[in-house]
Amino acid sequence: MKSSLTIVAATLLSTLSLSVQADECGEFTIxxxxxxxxxxxxxxxxxxxxxxxxxxxxxxxxxxxxxxTSMIEKGQPDVAPEMWTNGIKAAIDKGVADKRLRxxxxxxxxxxxxxxxxxxxxxxQYPEITTxxxxxxxxKVFQHPEDDEKSAFYGCPAGxxxxxxxGHLFDALKLDDHGFEMIDPGSGAALAATIAKAYERERxxxxxxxxxxxxxxxxxxxxxxFGSGTDVDEFRNCTTQPECASPKVTMYPSAPVYTLTTEAxxxxxxxxxxxxxxxxxxxxxxxxLLAWIEDNQxxxxxxxxxxxxxxxxxxxxxxxxxxxxxxxxxx
Length: 331
Hints:
This protein is of the alpha/beta class. The protein contains 16 helices and ten strands. Helix 2 (about 35-55) links the parallel strand 1 (about 25-35) and strand 2 (about 55-60). Helix 2 crosses helix 14 (about 300-310) and helix 2 (about 35-55) packs across helix 16. The relative contact order is 0.16.
């Protein structure tokens, strides 16, 4: 009898020990990647995990390809908060298949967003301009800065991948047949400046842009509907390929942006991994945050505190009430 009780007690203690270990959070590393959104995310993640969930998360420098490669080959860092998976899709797919990597939740719930955009005040004047047919109908309003006989379309800067996609779609939509000329702005900053200048003067503008960005946080732009839906195969096999000779019309597909972890992290840190499965930002929220960061010349830590103070309705959805209280107390 005594032996049976001993066995039962030992079993209960073992089960309890495993339960406690499952609820604990250990030491791990998070890549502080070298662009605004990813670095901001890393600071928010570290604060919630350390202060709210008693983890010991350390930030280390990172970038897309070096971080992804290191995670596959060396198992470090443990977490990449914002990985645009299309950029190194083959490597990530193989890493997942080989059980070296794990995709957690979406960093951007809407995915990375691209398209041709017009300002909202122009839509108020010409409601039909939200469609490519409406744009063509009102082509003359998009005055070219150097040629009165042409209409201006602002493309992606030379050398960027989006120069290929926006050029192919410009051709597929036959915009040149309707008097449009694609203007190379020269740089990302110059392209942003054309939107800012048009918006401040309430002038017509159409061109390529993407989200999340500070520009779309500052200026209300409306994405033009091509009326084609999204053909992912066409986009991958032709729209993105420089040598594609006969591009067809397709809307830009959403670019998948995930939090990437090592498989070891996913197995050893289930509490933290569950957090990353829950955490995600809408493009609208991130656009607003990027606009605030730019206007205030804020670093990632300052942006983190601003976010906690002004977006509790966002981050409290990721954690339970007890964790939220601990985070607020730490703040």
